[in-house]
Amino acid sequence: MGEVTTVPVIPNELVPFQPARHGPGHAAAGLAALTGATASAGEPGTPGTPAALSVRAGVVSRGALLRRLAEAERVVQVSAPAGSGKTVLLRSWIAEDGLATRAAWVPADSEQRDPLRFWISVADALRGTAAGSALVRPLTAAPGLDGWAVVERLLADLAPLAERLWLVIDDAHLLGAGEVLPQLELLLLRAPPELRFVLATRHDLRLGLHRLRLTGELTEIRAADLRFSLAEARALFAATGVPLAAEALARLHGRTEGWAAGLRLAALSLAGHPDPERFAAEFSGTDRTVTEFLLAEVLDRQSEEVRRLLVRTSVLKRVSGPLADVLTGSSGGERILQDLEQAGAFVVSLDAGRTWFRYHQLFADMLQLELRRAEPAEQAALHAAAAGWLAEHGHPVEAVHQAQAAADWGTATRLLSDRWLDLYLAGSGATLAGLLAAFPRRVVAASPELTAVQVAADLVRGALEDAGRHLATATAGLTAVPAERRGRVEVMLAVLRLFLARRFIDFPVVADEAQRLLARTEDADAARLGLSEDLRAAALISLGIAEVWAFRFADADRHLKQGVGLARLIGRPYLEFTGLTHGAHGMLLFHPGPSQAEWSRRAIELAEQHGWGDEPLAGVAYAQLGIVLLFAGRLDEAEPWLERAERTLRTEVEPAAGVSLRYARAVTELAQGRYQEALNAFAGAEKLAATLARPHTLATSMRSRMLQTLVRLGQTGPAEQALAELSEDERGSAEMRIAEAALRLATGAPQAAADVLAPVLDGPDTKVRLIRTVTALLLAARARDALGDQAGAGRVVERALDRTESSGMLLPFLLDPVPGLLDRHRRSGTAYPALISQILDLDGVPGRAGSGPVRGGGLEGIVPSRMTEQLTDSETRVLRYLPTHLTVHDIASELFLSVNTVNTHRRHVYAKLGVHSRHEAVDRARALGLLAPSPRSHGDRGTA
């Protein structure tokens, strides 16, 4: 007590470690030496003695912390709970930086709350340094001498200090709240610049450090900084010589939360343990060495009131003051929890207002052990009381957990049955499934309500057949539900029928159930039946999706927007995400356009904002955006989104979207000339489509494209046979007529191709399946050209271009390229020169610039003689729209870009062309050959 401590040298900025022999006695004895934690001065192994740091067989580097100390400000506070390694860190720093003769170490203890005794020990420690020995006068206790006088004397003695000197006070929290801290604050504020302070404490000291924080004179190292990283934990265990698998080590690290003492106790116990892997799996706060440490260092130091609160609230994952009061039957819980957190007693605040707290995992384990020892009969009652409070205060998940822990299955069933839809619509499907899994199977089997919840859990994991079976079981058992709850369960079963039908794309059922639910939301007893606004939003979204597949686009657009808007209004982001994603998917298949890209992007933004980026539903949004870009002919931009979708989308959860994704992959392969890969992908999409309740909208298109791919592979015989095996109605469909036309062209029968396409071209002009229409036109143009009817071929090409310009869907020109016809059409001086140039420059179109003879007038890679800098691909795309009447907003929609991005590209185009207006840019681009000359026969379609 009060002695000057000699600091041993520890080389290489390393924390010492030496495994003890296996057994709790050895582990406990070695712990203080390794962590710097001590109950009182003079205890064996106290870090205040040289022996405490004498063991150095193994080492763990903490270089980052040592560098922070070396670069620290005038005052350093190292504040962390017991066993965090504060003392060892400071000793390692002193040794590494060679400060043994320039650092005065004062280990505080409870007896040094007497100010005079403490300050005498400080003076003695300072005199033990090289600089202090010449400046600080000897000091002994004398009548009339108090702590204030000693501080003034030290300030006077150290005023001439010319070289840096450190005063390190260890266990400063033991100084108490008497006069010592105000006296220390005076010394901190008035000390000469070369006197530095390092304070190691288990909780923040009331020293007015906020003033130093504001002036930048304070360096703080806290528990989070002292936690061992996984790499440091790995080094620690490697020093024991005990092999431990990476997974076991990660589990141990997570369990200890990087707490130095916990890791070191585990390492000490592992040395010589017969089954290290099992020990790591089972290690907890109930381990004898951990329990002894936490009891001695934390729990035994608390008052009976605090001990009661800690032990009884250990049944909770998190605790608030009012909840603690319920479990203790007293008041003042919030104040106690806040005091414990501030005191570094393994209590962690979870919110900025310091109203919710949790216990360190090992500390919670130890408290639960104490509860089982001291009050074994109270556990169930505590869980039940917690369940009641949590349910009443809007914490349903925790309430279910507590009811389950109390084995109160009736309460747990009621709570989960009432709240499963909230969890499902909030995107917490995994939580829902986890809660259900915690019920005994016999309880689930005997409860129609839990069987209904099982349907939702089946939907979450994509087990659609199981979902259908459990839905039937729950419906059959409805009469066993108490009368007062039966109406609510009936509504929930209707919701589940809707959700299941949507997965199977059984949209007549979706529409019927959605209409019924919407009607019931207007009933007077809607709230009693659980028909909340979020359920109304879900029904509107589902109805809109069904209407898309029924080709009722106006109704679909209205209901989808209403549902998504309501979801946003009531604060249901996952429901909004669902509406945007599924709505965009349906509209994409039937009515593609820029709005689908916008909906997909909004869905992706929501997913990224809320951490849903790896969910299957996010995969649907990625797929949609990739498909929109694919339809626009932008394969390079589509590919990353399709790949991301393939990594994320689970076809068992979203089978309909999975079919669309596999179809998109097949089309991508086809567009790039990889015909066998395309055929395989089409087959995979068709196989998945067969699992749906109703035919996927792409089913006929897939078969058509598969036949066309066979033709590309030269397998005209199998293609002919497949056509012959079709029914008359199927063969007469537009898709199959297109496939037959491709076959006839490949076998040298252009007239037959023209004849088979005639009903497709003469049919009603509709935006639905626009890609199909343009494909038919391109094949018809090839047939006319092969028959020698160049004028007729030109007219058909014009029709194809007209439909393409209005939609921006360039994919047909990649799948069925006609570069010669397009080039001839452009040279004839007719309309659409910019569009033709854009098409001919697509990746995959024969004659693309930079990949062979420039049959299509490709522009990328060409730097005109009077341009100093090449246009980028994006700038070239914007340039091609400048001769049109489209506004900047229209161009942005066509290119699926923001208005700001289009404006940026436009400014760059002007700068590179040396012009100042849109009209000048068009004229200059034509003069340089970047745009085709102004059409003569059809007039200029907007030269702006």
Q: Provide the β-strand percentage band.
A: under 5%
Poorly predicted sequence stretches spanning 5 or more consecutive residues: 1-58, 847-865, 935-944
The value of Rg in angstroms is: 38 Å
Q: Give me the count of strands.
A: 10
Described by strand count, sense and barrel closure, the largest sheet is:
5 strands, parallel
Q: Roughly how much helix do the residues carry, as a percent range? A: 55-70%
Describe the strand arrangement of the main beta sheet, using strand numbers: 4-5-6-3-7
Euclidean distance between termini CA atoms: 91 Å
| Structural class by secondary-structure content | mainly alpha
Shape: globular
Question: Roughly what is the average pLDDT, rounded to an integer?
Answer: 82
Q: What's the tally of helices?
A: 49
